[in-house]
Every structure is written in structure tokens, then in C-alpha cells.
Amino acid sequence: MPAAPAPKARLAYIDWMRGLACLLMFQTHCYDAWLGGTARQSRFFMYSQMGGTFPAPLFLFLAGISFALVIDKLLQKNLSASQIARSTIRRGAEVFGFGLLLRLQEYLISWGWAPKSDLLRVDILNTIGVSMMLMGVLCWLILAVTAGRLRLAGQPRAAVPTSALLNSSGGSSLQARFMLITAAAVTALIISLVTPLLWTTWRPRFLPWPIESYINGVHNLGTPQAWLFPIFPWTAFAFAGLAAGFILQSSWTRAREGRVFISVGVAGVILIELSRWLDAMPRQLYPVYDYWHTSPEFFLMRLGMLLVILTGTYVWCRWGLAQWGFSPLIQMGQASLLVYWVHIEFVYGRVSILTKRAQTIGGATIGLAIIFLAMLALAYIRTHAKRWFKKTGPGGTADSRPPVLVEGNKRPATPVT
């Protein structure tokens, strides 16, 4: 049986892929904010904005994969289903709160010309937070049901540690993981299937617009807006990532990881072709069909592309140059929330480093390079600051605190913090 790769190699592809999402986000925002005149009508600008359709699905998809990793780790600590739910839902609420704080910051910085309705705009950070809370509820239900079935089968709770629900080779582990994968995949499919209706004939018009906006992105403009990030369809990418995460973290996958990732890429190509075939059908299921914004076919297309990117990223991180020394994208991916938050002000805010809508392609590209390097430096500082402090200690010299000896081991252990 092939040995599983080291944990570092297995986690690197997630950071690299998140860093790629940051890079695509930077180029989209920079060219959108700074290009002016004829440059905005150029083919270059069109392709730049097409690249901007990837960051949001990437961030949500990776949030789902990371969520599966967190669930695995919490189960290894033998936490109950309700304890796991509290921890994960609380984290989702924190991210949602960060989204609200970002909207408040944007409003205060733009005081005088930003409308108050911007405070309630549904942005990507809000949707990631909501997605995490919904995934927490789903995992809680599945884990609670699985544990309940084991008790009904005559196994007392104390005899079945929760770590065994996903991390053993027994039947209960396989059942729990299969249920989680199936529930996440079905949820993603349902969200994509009802999205066209919730944007058109099934619109919940009875709701106040700030609440309806989380359903279909209507905001206060009367009709759903494609530039916002409502639950439908965007959370489908998070649940798809959750299903993928539970698959990739299984012991079966770890034993044959290379082959599984190649299969994931093949599955992505199949989804892309399936999307094209369904779109070419002479008759459509929905009374209002919008392929590029709400259709399940477009969801399949983008999900297929995400799977292909996931496979390519894994190959690059395992057999390519991604980990040969310092990797800018891995570094960026480790602090994606911070660089997302900060770069907005230097691109769209009042402290924009270039005059908005007045730059040539060359000038905006120089600005993009500056933003990338500045955010890379910020990410590096963010991920290394704690390590630097631990090395220097409060006294300012390396290892200024005395080491603590572990009994039975003559070598000093890690200093107590």
C-alpha cells in the first residue's frame, strides 16, 4: 500500500490555491478600479474581468475543504457533535461579523458619498460566514444522527468515542463519512437547482430587502444583482468543497492520494462537458433561464473548473516547484483574510495608490505589482510575527526565557508560554 505524503505536502496545495485566488482577486480589482478611457473597452480588460469570476468560488470551495479539516481535528479531540457545532458555528459567526465590520469600515472611509444601504450589502465575507454556520448545522445533524444510531445498536456513548466516527476503519466511520459527503453534495445540488427560481418566479418579495438580499442579492435595487454574493447560488460552492474535503481526508484517499487527485481532475472535465451538453439542450427546465448567473449548468461548469484547478494545484505542490524554497502564493494563502481586507482600501478606497479610472494598462499593471508585493510582505509579517516574538522573548534576546526540562528527557522542551 503506498504511503501517504507528509502533512505539509498535503496542506500546501490548499494554501497555494487560496493564494491563487488572492492573485486573481488583486488583478480583477486593480484593473477594474484604475483602468480608464479606451483601456476599459479593450479585450485585455474583458479577459481580466473574466478571471475575476474565479476568486469567489475558489474562496468558498476552499472554505468548505478547510471546514472538513476542522471537523476531523475536532473529532480527534473526542468532542461531541454539539460541541463541534458550537465551535464551528461560532467561527462562522465571527467571519460573518468581520464581513459586517468591513462594510462599516468601508462606509466610514467613504463618508459623505457612500449610501447607507452599503452597510447591508451582501459581500463575499458575509457569505463565507453564513456558509460556515450552515455547514456547522449540517455536520452537527449528521454526526448526531450517526452517534444516535450507534447507541440504538447497543453501543453506549462512552464505548464509542467521537474520534471513531471519521477516523477509524470500522463500519461506523465509513457510514458517518459517507453520510457527510452525501449530505454536503446533495445540499450543494439543491442550492444550485432552486437558485433560478428564487431569483425569478419564487422570489421572497414579502421579506425586507436586507433579508431577501441574502437569498438572491436583490439589495435595495428591486431585482437580484449578479455582482453580489447571496446564499443562492454561492453557498453551493462551500458545500461542494465540504464534500470534497471529507473525501480527500479519508484514510482510503490518503493511501492512494495521487490517483485520487487525478480522478478529481477527470471528474472536473466531465462536469464541464456535462454543463455544455445540458446548456445545448433545446428545452430548458426553468421559465427564466440565465446560464451565466443562476443556472445549475453554470454551477457545474465552475465546479468542474475548480476540480481541475485543485488537481493542477496538487500536482504543482507535490511534484512541481511550489515548495522549492519560498512560495509567494503559499505565503499569501496563509493570510488571505488579512490581505483581502487591507488591499481593498489601497485599490478602491480613498487611499488608492493610483488615480481611479485614469490609468493605462501599463500604469495599472505597475500598480498591481506594487499591491501584490505589499500584500505579500504583509502576509509574511502576519505569519512570522508570533514566531519572531517567541524567538526574541519579552527581554529582546533569543530564547530569553529558560527552557523547561521534561522529566525523562535531558533535552530542553519548548519554552512554556
List the SSEs and their pairings.
Blueprint: H1 7-34, H2 43-51, H3 55-76, H4 81-109, H5 124-152, H6 164-167, H7 171-198, H8 209-216, H9 231-248, H10 251-255, H11 257-279, H12 296-319, H13 328-333, H14 336-347, H15 361-392
How would you portray this structure in words?
It is a single chain. Helix 1 runs antiparallel to helix 3, helix 1 packs antiparallel against helix 15 and helix 4 packs antiparallel against helix 5. The chain is built from 15 helices and no strands. It is globular. With 417 residues, the protein is mainly α. The longest helix is centred in the C-terminal third of the chain and has 32 residues. The N terminus and C terminus are likely disordered.
Helix-strand string = HHHHHHHHHHHHHHH
Q: Tell me the distance between the termini.
A: 41 Å
Radius of gyration, in angstroms, nearest whole number: 23 Å
Please work out how many helical segments DSSP would assign: 15
Q: Proportion of β residues?
A: under 5%
Helical/strand content category: mainly alpha
Biggest pleated sheet: none
Query: Quick check: average pLDDT?
Result: 86
* Quaternary structure of the protein: single chain
Short description:
The protein has 15 helices and no strands.
Top keywords for this entry?
single chain; 417 residues; mainly alpha; disordered C terminus
